[in-house]
Amino acid sequence: MEMKGEYTIPASRAAVWAALNDVAVLKAAIPGCDSIARLSETEIEATVTAKVGPVKASFKGLVTLSDLDPPNGYTIRGEGKGGVAGFAKGGAKVRLAEGPAGTVLSYDVDAAVGGKLAQLGGRLIDSTAKKLADEFFASFSKLAAGSETAA
Amino acid sequence: MYAFDYKRPKTVAEAEAAFAADSDAAFLAGGQTLIPTLKQRLRQPSALIDLAALDALKGITVADGIVTIGAGVCHADVAVSADVRKAIPALADLAAQVGDPQVRNRGTLGGSIANNDPAADYPAAVVGLDATVHTSRREIAAAAFFTGMFETALEPGELVVKVSFPIPRRAAYQKFRNPASRYAVVGVMVAETAGGMRVAVTGAGPCVFRVPTMEAALAMNFSAGALQNIQVPPDDLNADLHATSEYRAHLIGVMATRAVASIA
To answer: Of A11, A21, A49, B207, whose Cβ has the fewest other Cβ atoms within 10 Å?
Structure first.
């Protein structure tokens, strides 16, 4: 599955870049994130509980950051295992650009879901991914804009 | 299936109390979505609160131009109800087309709308007929009830008790079903109600929605031809291995036209 999108965040590029690298902001923005911990400069470990309709599954995963190019963007790749529910893996290229109304964040995601989730939820995976991405960027955008006002 | 507690309350108040008393309880209505999910171990509730013994959720009544159906009434009972058939034939037709015989004989109205599967049939009836959802705490208008994919205005522990459907002047439901699951790839309810024309679409998007351009065209001229040049943009529609968003957009026009043609 591939997904592209663009969000305008009313904050400077430096503030958005800082928020993208702040695990506390990521924890607050990722829907269902139970815990997140930075293992090294480029590795993050996270536990996420995904609740979609009747399904509620907990994923534990490792996220790595590469192509770090502050404050222009990075590539984020991760793989999460949800026990019997299956697995999800994927990556996103995130780019930040100056825009008239703030910073334009664009992303290009490729993701794959396997196991029972894919078998049973095939018809819903794309809409679920879109919904989670929308939720993430809506809260991320608010947090990034808020952090700058506070600073 | 993981282990869970099982409770079978007799009243709505007992059901709400049982829900509040448990850390991660789930209400069980007909179980046509929840039970397969439990069997696949994709959900692990601490307790199941079975709603089957709640008398408040039962029964169908027709009075003062309103059809009221208990949340615990199964689709098969709505489909064969002579009262529903006489008052709102489109609603009986819709119930007759849900899933397969097992789903129709176990699945309930309340369970269907509380789950709000994007491809479920009943949301099209609730929105298309401008129904009111009566819960254990309040009344919710159709327009405010469905809030997103698998999401509703219901709070944790809040139960759907019944749904009241005002009888429309005329209405029809047409569905293009997936031949395996019988879910709606696209389902359209067209209704001429006291409050105006309504076209509600399920299956096509993440959540049921209305098509104002079709409603305006039908208000001017209630005929299949009136919909001929109306395109629904595919941008926010669902795409999966069964149908692209462009195909779903096209099907909305086809299903709406068939629905109008059947009652014009």
So the answer is: A49
Token readout for B33 is: 């979505």
Whether residue B17 is found in the same domain as residue B117: no
Smallest CA–CA distance, residue B150 to chain A, in Å, is 5
For chain A, what is the domain count? 1
Q: Which residues of A touch B (CB under 8 A)?
A: 52-57, 83-85, 116-117, 120, 122-128, 130-131
Kindly report, residue by residue over B91-111, the tens digit of the pLDDT: 999 999 999 999 999 999 999
Inter-chain contact B42–A54, Cβ cutoff 8 Å? yes
B242 → chain A, closest CA residue:
A123
B187 and B223 housed in the same domain? yes
Whole-model pTM? 0.89
What is the full DSSP assignment across A82-105? -GGG-EEEEEEEEEEEEETTEEEE
Specify the pLDDT at position B159.
97
Angstrom distances, CA of residue B152 to CA of B98, B115, B118:
20, 8, 12
Residue-wise pLDDT tens digits, B143-171: 999 999 999 999 999 999 999 999 999 99
Q: Which residue segment(s) compose the domain that B101 sits in?
A: 55-263
Number of folded domains that form chain B = 2
Same domain, B76 and B21: no
Please report, for the domain that includes residue B17, its CATH number: 3.30.43.10
Q: Which range, A75-84, A111-120, B17-26, is most confident? A: B17-26
Q: Which two tokens stand for residue A108?
A: 């290009």
Contact: B150, A53; criterion CB under 8 Å: yes
Cβ-based interface (< 8 Å): residues of B facing A = 33-34, 36-37, 40-44, 115-119, 148-150, 183, 206, 238-242
Q: What pLDDT is attached to residue A87? A: 87
Residues of chain A contacting residue B116, judged by C-beta atoms under 8 Å apart: 53
Mutate to test the interface with B, among A2, A124, A128, A132 (most CBs of B within 10 A): A124
Read off the CATH number of the domain in which A51 is found: 3.30.530.20
